[in-house]
Amino acid sequence: MSPFEIKIDEEKKKLVKELIKKLHQGENIQEVRKQFKEVLRDMNALEITQVEQELIKEGMDPREIFSMCDIHLEVFKENLSTNLDLAPPGHPIHTLMHEHVKLVEFGEKLFQTTKDLRKVKDFPFAGNILGAIQDIVNHFKEAEKHYLREENILFPYLEKHGITQPPKIMWMDHDRIRELKKEIFELVEGRKITDYSEFVDRLEKASLALAEYQSGHFEKENKILFPTAMKVISEEEWKDITKEFNDIGYCCFSPKEAVEAVEEEQTQKATLDSGIIEFETGKIDVKTLEAVLDTLPFDITFVDKNDRVAYYSNSSERLFVRTKAIIGRTVQNCHPNKSIHIVNKIINDFREGKKDKAEFWFRLGDKYVYIRYYAVRSREGEYLGTLEVSQDIAQIKQIEGDKKLLDWED
């Protein structure tokens, strides 16, 4: 059994079931809620959500379980607010764990605020409540930096120490959380549902799903992944991880120690070797070459013939997060599990000489992302690796006519 899986405790499931039935048989609500909370205190987020799923499979009406969910979320928050001393303030693990607490609070607050929508009859009367929901949504959008720090920095360091499967499982959880958040964002900001009652129903269910799923995920990270990281990652590596966390940045709800560290940090880039590189078409010193590559109006990433990330440019127009932790990491581990088969298909066809180029394009907010992959070969045809080129072409697509004069203003 995976360390991220648990066996359902039949006795606990029976207690939860009995308490829900008591509630709907008209017994004292406050007394039942008190008993329910005591039962949940002995269960972690994973157990609670899995018991719920089991009860629904057995035929219990989801609405009966739904009626007690505010207690679930309260207990989740209390559970994740304990044992936060795994690492000292300013440490990457301390930051991640305290962000978990805030995100669970936002999840509970979103669910409770969504329930307030039932107190009014239609959209025109829900302005203040919808405004409060939008504020919470903004925090969930800001939370993306939390997941990016884990995926692009913590996970690669764990992989270097042979911890490969848990990061993959966590990344799949992240993608599921993103799907749930996207559903909420579309409901709140897209407002495509005109029927108020349907809107409230769907938002309430989506907010509960997000709150419960992320709580279960955080439980796995706090109790399994993070303690493992503390054991295998060295103090020197944690210093490097902290610097790379700082590069990605923090959320508006991150611990102040992390934010202050970025504000006070005086970064000094190491002086590059001034050696000259001679090409057939000219020569250039290393420092200038790096500046040239970083000036290109697109991102480039090179994956060597062994499928490991060897280099990425540091363009000011970067579309996707890149950190030093990915250098030497297999390209497969740099992608979510659902897209690894595509990555392997491209690289294998490049390596076997079947293809030389692959391209994709899609919208990302106000950007139009164009990604191209090129097989890099020696003059003798030997496969050397794959070059990824990513660019926002939204402005390019708008170009029409001719422009032959300089229009700068003095």
From TrEMBL:
Native source organism of the sequence: Candidatus Heimdallarchaeum aukensis
Domain Hemerythrin-like: 91-229
Official protein name in the record: DUF438 domain-containing protein
Pfam families referenced in this protein's UniProt entry, alphabetically: DUF438, Hemerythrin, PAS_10
TM region positions: none
GO cellular component: plasma membrane
Residue span, DUF438 domain: 17-81
